[in-house]
Amino acid sequence: MARKRSAIDFQFGECIGEGSYSKVYRGVSIHNHRTYAIKILSKSHIHRENKRKYVNIEKDTLNILGKHPGIVTLYYTFQDEKSLYFVIDFAKNGELLSLIRKMGSLSETLSKYYFVQLIDAVEFIHSKGIIHRDLKPENVLLNHEWKLMITDFGAAKILSQEEMANGRSMQPIDEAGREMSNQTSNGSFVGTAEYVSPELLKYNICGFECDLWALGCILYQFIVGRPPFKGQTEYLTFEKIISLDYSFPKNYFVPPQVEQVIRSLLVVEPEKRCNIEDLKRQPWLENIDWDNKDFIWRTKVPKLE
Ligand code: ATP
Question: What 8-state DSSP symbol labels residue 243?
């Protein structure tokens, strides 16, 4: 078995990002010379902000998920007196959100390329009994080949064996979940409101279906350049979500088959929302050989436009 790693096994480079209780650095292993992203979390901050649960959930989910091309791999974790260290895949090309912003919106071809990868990764996550619960373009990173990797499992829910066996997918939000992580002590919502599902807002429940709702929002954003539900305030965004108040802009050409996929996902009742199996059979995705993982993950990225 490999020796346990520690900070001295890496040469630390520049800081590549900051979260609310973490800093992410580029780091090169002195053993295999591979570049990683090293997320450093301050123990005192985690303790002060009572974030231990979310840090553990992130670590546990990544350990359960292991290696999948569409999900960041957690290679090592270690700690010293002050900090926790997560050594993960380095996403050279940053967040998918930045790419959408830079390009305005994505072409149909590029949208399909990324949407297919998203579906394959989300299906894998669900197959392991995990609901991500915070899917959004900010939490999708791009590697050196511009292929995507889902990250940020701090709001995820890990279903028990029993819950999996019962086929239960509608999980009431518990204290490890999104509603706590995204609520301040005075109860106001923090974080990105735009991708939250109506059932979470109305009944505080979030099952596998809430990830499918988010996929609908993300596909809309690929094509239109902004999420479908966006009000002046969070409250107005929530109102729009609950009343399914969105439309396709007149000045954009939205291919009818893409619109069909978005409409099948943006369905208020979770039980009537398109599930992954049916999503894969939508006419827009008809030509995809879902069993051919090489096709999904090895095909070169189409022209970035
Ligand atoms: P918060 O904790 O506030 O929700 P966050 O989840 O974005 O923020 P981190 O996961 O610590 O926090 O990431 C901070 C930033 O570092 C991100 O915005 C992202 O741009 C960058 N980053 C995170 N992981 C990687 C990675 N594996 N490769 C490259 N950059 C990364």
Answer: T
